[in-house]
Design goal:
The protein is an alpha+beta fold and 152 residues long. It has four helices and three strands. The two termini are 35 Å apart. It has two domains: 39 residues, no CATH class; 108 residues, Translation Initiation Factor IF3. Bound molecules: zinc ion (ZN). The site of zinc ion (ZN) has 7 residues, from helix 1.
């Protein structure tokens, strides 16, 4: 993991405040620069559930990458959602939690892909398992790939 600003190498994302900027450099940046640095990596637009990306061809496949998050519902969230079940309709408390958990798993997968030098992830899938009452594991996986634009 290399910081884009100072060029220092770090063993993991733990030392990073944004995608490619270390904690130290991030603290020295202006608020505008920080906002820019915090934007999700470009690879997110290069992820697809299909096995091809229009206009690009897969040059190299780097194998499966994945992200896993485990979430438990808070007691209060569960009570709120139980009330919502009585009223009916979309159970927003749960869908929100699922959305967040998925996004987290997705981001981890993307980081993993970037770490091994991919610029795209194809065949992305989600999988969720309830490990025990109220505890859900969300898995996001796909095939990390190096793609390049098809010319012409
Ligand atoms: Zn730095």
């Amino acid at each position: 993991m290399r910081c884009e600003k100072c060029g220092n190498d770090y063993p993991s994302h733990y030392y990073f405040k944004a995608e490619s900027v270390c904690r130290e450099c991030f603290d020295k940046m202006t608020p505008e620069e920080q906002a820019e640095a915090k934007k999700p990596p470009k690879i997110q637009s290069m992820t697809t559930t299909a096995f091809t990306i229009d206009g690009y061809r897969v040059v190299r496949s780097l194998g499966v990458v994945r992200g896993i998050t485990v979430r438990s519902r808070s007691v209060f969230g569960t009570i709120g959602a139980s009330l919502q079940t009585l009223v009916g309709g979309n159970i927003s408390l749960f869908s929100e939690l699922c959305e967040e958990t998925r996004a987290e798993a997705f981001e981890m997968m993307v980081r993993h892909a970037l770490d091994i030098g991919a610029n795209a992830v194809i065949g992305v899938r989600y999988d969720a398992t309830e490990i025990m009452q109220g505890v859900t594991e969300v898995l996001c996986y796909g095939t990390a790939a190096v793609v390049e634009p098809v010319d012409g």
